[in-house]
Amino acid sequence: MLSAVYDAPLTTAPLLLSLVLAASGVAKLVDRETVGEAFVSLRLPGVLTRLKAPTLLPFAELMLALALLVTSGALAVVVALVALAVFVAYLVVIVRALGFDEPVTCSCFGKLGLGTVDRFTAVRNAVLVALALVTLYDATRGRSVVARCADFDGEAWAWLLAVLVGIVLTWLIAGHRGGQEASAPSDAGDDYVRQPIPYAVLRTREDAGVTLREMAYSSPVLLLLVSPHCGSCLPVIERARTWQHKHENLRTVIVLSGDPDEPTGLQDEGDFDVMFDPSFEIGRLFAGGNPTAVLLGADGMLAGGAVSGKGNVLGLLDEISEELSAVEQPAADDDAAAENAPGASVTQTSLETPPARATPAPVVQSSPAPAVDDAADLPVTDTEVAETQDVVEDDEYVTRPTPYALFTDGTGTKVSLMDIGRAGPTVLLYVSTGCGSCKEVLNSVATWQASLRGVPIFCIVGHETEVEGLAPYGIEPNRALIDEPRAVATMMRLGTPSLFAIGPDEHLLAGPVSGQVDITATMEAIIGEVRAVRSEDAGDDQADNKPV
């Protein structure tokens, strides 16, 4: 039986391909709608949809998975060639999608594999092609996989089992990439926490710039970030076509990622109020992909969302519709009618706490902030912070969602606060290179960074000219963030220096605190927490994030 042990490595390739095809086919059968949406998102020829390819594909994958195991001889070679052609075609489709102007969501494994197409996806498919090549060679040996497995002894089965355990363990450690829509972060509580409308600019059809705050100056606005080439967006677009006429007191705006002078790709685009996000700033700001929905209140605050994914977006539309229907009921008298006027109560009362994903609000510290160098220069308005200043007593830290903010880093790359936090726990310092107390804080950055055991420190400055001034303190350009419009400073009421920390659960982990003394004390507390959960003896790099 010694030959069985040497036969096991080659047998692994068709076994793995069969397992992949079976998992893909079952997942597609469980969520058939997602498969059709993927054909649209990947911009596959329409003739495939007309030939019922999305419906037939999961059955074909299941049949191919079985055939890889039971066929032998010349038929096994034919089956292996079909498998190779299938996986090469999948690779070509993915590589082609990487060249699209906008991110593409692929359901390669049904909802189990729902995620954005990236280089990781291409590498994964390339590995599958390599396995298909090994499978083709293995098929030339004559006997079927099932027949050879029947001759395996305990050592050969142990070898195969070890390989399968390694695959499962890798999947569990790395975490699967599925369930994008279902992975929307949960609230710390059931209440919808509001925050000021973030700073971002959309373009009109005439290529004029309009900020989000200007759009919602006199009435609430619902933004729907979609793409006509996104399969999950099509139901949202069609719902918006009728939904916006049902609630005419709420402006509904379709946001596309292209330039204003390019074709929109929308059918009957005159049915929609369309604006453009050519540099993907809005998409990066909310870090949700297409489709995403967010409701801007007329009081300068977010009133709903942001939520992402077809189900979450349609759910938010239903919740808003219910709220608006209640507000638009005929009033019993003139006074009641005045109180229920659209554009006021909708954003301030009815839609203040919809059962959607919580959006961030500025976090205030448990005690008044000490005087800071640049506090007087920050353009803070009462309407931006009045509804979100919660006084925390007895030094109890109340976690808050991460604010929506978009930066340009020192390399010129756009990055959102949400994306930074999703990469792992992160400490952020809001500083000015011309501020005396900021320099004292910056002098400690290298020491703090060495003690944080992998938790990065980012520095936020108000202008790109200050990025070079951070270099002497060991701050690399990709960790220098430029808050040119002072958006995050305004929303969080930050002076310089200030500190706050964010985490992958999209909530603040610490701060904000201001002043050198409080920053130093908070950093010492954070370092203590990191040492407690990331001790070298424990060897645990997946520590829980505890609020400081």
From TrEMBL:
Q: What is this protein called?
A: Methylamine utilisation protein MauE domain-containing protein
| Annotated Methylamine utilisation protein MauE domain residues | 10-137
Q: Which InterPro entries match?
A: Methylamine_util_MauE, Thioredoxin-like_sf
Question: Which Gene Ontology cellular component annotation is one that this UniProt entry carries?
Answer: membrane
According to its record, how does it sit in the membrane?
Multi-pass membrane protein
Task: Name the residue ranges with Low complexity bias.
Answer: 353-370
Biological processes annotated in GO = methylamine metabolic process
Disordered, as annotated region: 329-370
**Which keywords has UniProt assigned to this entry?**
Membrane, Transmembrane, Transmembrane helix
The cellular location(s) given in this protein's UniProt record come to: Membrane
- Membrane-spanning residues where? 51-70, 77-99, 119-137, 157-174
Q: Look up keyword Ion transport and say if it applies.
A: no
